[in-house]
Write a structure and sequence with these properties.
The chain is mainly alpha-helical. The chain is built from seven helices and three strands; from the N terminus they run H-E-E-E-H-H-H-H-H-H. It has a three-stranded mixed sheet, covered by helices on one side. The longest helix has 18 residues.
């Protein structure tokens, strides 16, 4: 949900983690104060909202329970094309129980084919993205970055001990 306990990035770093892909706040990787690299995610770039059944009640009423495969692929391609245009970091989160079915795997294949049709795209693992970010952007986020604005808000509104 994007709500970490206070200093959770420190705990992740102490446990040996170099990166996380659990928060929003940007369209490019950014760094926590501990130098943990955050590779931001977005709900529309996950497969779960498209394919998770809403058993009871269907919301909004009368709507189908899952999105059409064609509209999902169209959405992913439109988002990818916009991320590419603006030089952002596109992170598609796929779960085997959602997209890894015989009827849906073609979406992943068609999407990857689209991505690979460009010669200016780097298809990388999150670990590779984090290593690149550390090597090329090894600086803390600015005070006006959403991560720091949210942290300041939490500190300001924290109940006294």
């Amino acid at each position: 949900m994007g709500n970490w306990p206070d200093q959770f990035d420190r705990l992740l770093k102490e446990a040996g983690f170099l990166w996380s892909a659990t928060l929003n706040g940007d369209d490019v990787p950014y760094m926590h104060p501990t130098s943990l690299v955050e590779i931001p995610i977005h709900l529309e770039l996950e497969d779960r909202p498209y394919f998770q059944f809403n058993f009871t009640p269907a919301f909004p009423k009368g709507q189908s329970r899952i999105a059409s495969y064609e509209s999902v692929l169209s959405n992913w391609i439109a988002e990818f094309d916009a991320y590419r245009k603006f030089g952002a970091c596109f992170v598609l989160q796929l779960r085997p129980e959602m997209t890894g079915t015989p009827g849906r795997i073609f979406l992943v294949e068609a999407f990857i084919k689209h991505v690979l049709s460009f010669d200016d795209v780097w298809l990388a693992t999150a670990a590779e993205v984090a290593a690149w970010h550390l090597a090329n952007n090894a600086h803390a986020t600015s005070a006006d970055h959403p991560l720091n604005v949210f942290d300041a808000y939490q500190r300001e509104h924290r109940a006294p001990p």
